[in-house]
Specification:
Main location: membrane
Structural class: mainly beta
Shape: globular
Number of domains: 2
Organism: Cyclobacterium jeungdonense
InterPro entries: Beta-barrel_TonB_sf, CarboxyPept-like_regulatory, Plug_dom, Plug_dom_sf, TonB-dep_rcpt-like
Number of helices: 4
CATH superfamily of the largest domain: TonB-dependent receptor, beta-barrel domain
CATH architecture of the largest domain: Beta Barrel
Distance between the termini: 55 Å
Keywords: Cell outer membrane, Membrane, Receptor, Signal, Transmembrane, Transmembrane beta strand, Transport
Family: Belongs to the TonB-dependent receptor family.
Radius of gyration: 28 Å
Length: about 775
């Protein structure tokens, strides 16, 4: 195996060659903060070639010419122009100046960051400025809700932050925060994501044509990078909103060498409701819910070629109910104290070392630890006092699950010349699964009860190599291999996944693109029907339940028209090894092995996606449309026949616009339309016959379902508006934002069920969740 990988590396290096050329390399940062600009462009007008900065702002450009005419550009920043003689290898570190108005800089020879130029397809990067300006549910800016507005991405339930990409489930998204996988990315039972936009530097969504450096999931990659911290001066920002407040502070620990950033967010619904609940229950009851996020990062520049990063995320949700009371009976007083609740959250940490080995070779080594846990608990304490009596009884129940990872990864970027960008690396992950355990303790019993699956230890590893190759000025391709494996319970799974994405330039403004990828996922998420509750369980592939596998092919075209990027893509995807609970089975069947409660099946999804996007200018945003079909099939479900996936939407339209119509005012809107979700409803009802516990007979009503997901909810559509204005003060800037969610009060279906009308007639009932909701927030920067 190792020999094959080394041979592949050698062949790629040999193809690229080591010509005696002049190399210009360095890093691209933001002026005033020192933040690296991911994906910044370097273009040589004379040679009509260039380079792209990697995730840490590093670039390398090799040329045989003796004169260079270089343009350094990035969306939302002023382009810099340098002319120089190429007599020796040169290091150029540049800081680009933000363009506050996001006006488009026209440098025709430097426009190499066009959608038609890159070899990858099905990849979208949204400027953070747009993310922050678009309307938000209850005024809380959410990265995931913006991603839901893109073609090929479904939201699932009303208001939810789940992502269903090209027919896949939420567990099939590789969500990375500073390179660390996130297993549960939702707050408030799925209505908000865990990502605080004030702490984020870059967001990229990949729906297909996956580069070989990504693996372990089937449907998408959401690669999110945290800010690195201001190296020049102390800065801060925050906001006070309808349900939560947040604050971010960043600055230098040692100027131009070490920086930090710290960000915190918390809801306060429980704090506002606590006095009201206590007053209404005379202090005996307390009910509440809250979530919080903490982000922190330290960035240390050892020297020009070495940097260290330490990033940490911690977040929790807690819903609880506490009740205290007492009663007196025959001179004995009984005080009792009850508490019930659920808690879930993530802890993530990453330690990185960046090393510029030479002007063509860059390395990044990362050690990570992550933990996701879910805890459902109930505690009861009873204290009895009286004449000759002093007794305390304690009883507790707990259901918990989770997953814990330790991982190490090494990535290398090798850029021998402008026609090759080679990446290779390896990763190993040690998983510890806790797939659902129930435990109870009682002071009245010496024996504790424990039910559920034992902890499982697994190891996952991967090697990859890829090359972004310019075959000709018209033909460019990204070719790669991803080799992965999984070891669990004496079972060793192997997977070799070829990846290819190519583009052909029809003319300078138009290209045709195609991709083919295979993916393997060694972990599963057991999902209950209904809300995306944290009771969903992560479980590994086992000797009985194999990994998930997928194949995706896509064909499309991309074109730039003025300041608009236009893309049209058609895709076809198959998925094998999918699992879901059998009819009637849930996570609460603790006396059964989870492997006995699931059915294994397959899925397929195909469709066409259209996107028009404008990233710069006074008016920016996008219009997207998706026409798709997604189905599932399980031998033990729906008589083994294909049925629509619950979140299949035949038609999906989204419009997102922001308009900075004055220097201190902006307006934004988002409108969405989608075919209703598929639901299972009975088509007939008849009387059954059963023996009751008293030995008699009863005739219960039995519903007959003709097929799974045989009906559709009503079509979904909604309009959101937001208006912001800000003013510069001596201490900084303050900003007010007013928003309206669901402007025309559309009662969209949250779920449907059978019920009775006022006359007692049986009918299908629709239940809605969010009416029109106004919101406000006050933001500040200093």
């Amino acid at each position: 195996m190792k020999n094959q990988i080394f041979t592949c590396f050698f062949l790629l290096f040999s193809i690229a060659g080591y010509a005696q050329n002049v190399v210009v390399s360095g890093t691209i940062t933001e002026a005033g903060t020192g933040e690296h600009l991911i994906g910044a462009n370097i273009f040589d007008k004379y040679a009509e070639k260039g380079a792209v900065a990697n995730q840490f702002g590093f670039y390398s450009y090799t040329t045989t010419r003796d004169s260079l005419d270089l343009f350094f550009s990035f969306v939302g920043f002023q382009t810099q122009h340098l002319q120089l003689k190429a007599v020796r290898d040169t290091v150029i570190n540049l800081a680009l100046v933000p363009d506050g108005n996001l006006e488009e800089v026209v440098v025709s020879a430097a426009d190499m960051d066009k959608i038609q130029e890159v070899s990858r397809m099905s990849s979208i990067n949204i400027p953070l400025k747009q993310i922050k300006e678009l309307p938000a549910l209850m005024g809380e800016v959410d990265v995931f809700k913006v991603l839901q507005l893109l073609p090929g991405v479904q939201s699932g339930t009303e208001g939810g932050s789940g992502l269903y990409v090209r027919g896949g489930g939420p567990d099939q998204n590789l969500i990375l925060l500073d390179g660390v996988p996130v297993y549960n990315a939702s707050h408030l039972f799925g209505f908000f994501s865990i990502f605080n936009a004030d702490a984020i530097n870059n967001v990229e969504l990949i729906k297909g044509g996956f580069p070989s450096r990504y693996g372990g999931r089937l449907s998408s990659v959401i690669d999110i990078s945290m800010k690195e911290g201001n190296l020049q001066e102390i800065k801060g920002e925050g906001s006070i909103g309808l349900i939560a407040s947040k604050v971010t502070v960043e600055g230098p620990i040692k100027k131009d060498q070490t920086s930090f950033i710290f960000s915190a967010r918390r809801t306060y619904l429980d704090l506002l409701a606590r006095p009201i609940i206590k007053a209404s229950t005379e202090g005996s009851e307390n009910i509440g819910y809250y979530f919080y996020d903490l982000n922190g990062k330290i960035n240390h520049k050892v020297n020009n070629n070495n940097r260290l990063y330490l990033s940490v995320y911690s977040g929790d949700d807690k819903a609880y109910s506490k009740y205290k009371d007492f009663y007196v009976f025959e001179n004995e007083r009984t005080d009792y104290d009850e508490e019930f609740g659920l808690r879930w959250g993530n802890f993530i940490t990453a330690l990185r070392w960046n090393n510029v080995i030479n002007n063509r070779l860059f390395s990044n080594h990362t050690f990570t630890h992550s933990r996701y846990k879910f805890d459902l608990f109930s505690n009861y304490e009873e204290k009895i006092t009286g004449p000759g009596v002093d007794e305390t009884n304690v009883y507790s129940e707990r259901y918990f699950s989770g997953i814990r990872d330790w991982a190490f990864k090494s990535d290398f970027d090798f850029i021998p010349n402008p026609d090759h960008y080679i990446r290779f690396g390896a990763q190993v992950i040690f998983h510890k699964f806790s797939p659902g355990v129930y435990a109870s303790k009682s002071s009245e019993s010496e024996d504790d009860l424990r039910l559920g699956a034992d902890e499982l230890n697994s190891m996952e590893y991967a090697f990859y190599v890829e090359d972004d190759i310019n075959f000709t000025p018209r033909l460019k391709a990204n070719l790669g291999l991803h080799r992965s494996g999984f070891v669990t319970e004496n079972q060793h799974y192997h997977s070799l996944q070829p990846r290819v994405a190519a583009r052909y330039m029809v003319n300078p403004a138009t290209s045709i693109k195609a991709s083919f990828v295979t993916m393997t996922q060694f972990i599963h998420l057991l999902t209950n029907a209904g809300l995306g509750l944290p009771t969903d369980l992560w479980v590994p592939a086992t000797p009985r339940i194999g990994p998930q596998e997928s194949m995706q092919a896509a064909l499309g075209a991309a074109k730039t028209i003025g300041g608009f990027e236009v893309s049209l893509e058609a895709y076809y995807k198959t998925m094998d090894g999918l699992i879901e609970y059998k009819d009637g089975a849930t996570y609460l069947n603790l006396d059964e092995d989870w492997q006995d409660k699931v059915a294994v099946g397959e899925g397929r999804s195909y469709g066409t996606e259209f996107l028009v996007q404008r990233k710069v200018g006074k008016i920016s945003g996008w219009l997207g449309y998706t026409l798709s079909n997604t189905e599932r099939r399980f031998d033990e479900v729906n008589f083994g026949e294909w049925f629509p996936y619950k979140y299949d939407r035949r038609h999906d339209i989204s419009l997102a616009l922001t308009h900075e119509w004055k220097d201190n005012k902006d307006f934004s809107l988002a409108w969405v339309y989608g075919t209703g979700n598929a639901v299972s409803l009975p088509t007939q009802r008849y009387e059954g016959l059963e023996v009751n516990r008293f030995g008699g007979f009863s005739r219960p009503n039995i519903n007959y379902y003709e097929s799974r997901n045989n009906f559709r909810n009503r079509d979904y559509h909604r309009l959101d508006l937001s208006f912001s204005w800000w003013k510069t003060k001596k201490w900084g800037e303050r900003k007010w934002t007013l928003g309206i969610y669901n402007v025309y009060n559309r009662m969209n279906p949250f779920f449907m069920d059978l019920g009775n009308d006022q006359q007692g007639n049986r009918k299908v009932m629709q239940y809605s969740l969010f009416p029109i909701i106004p919101s406000f927030s006050y933001g500040f920067k200093f």
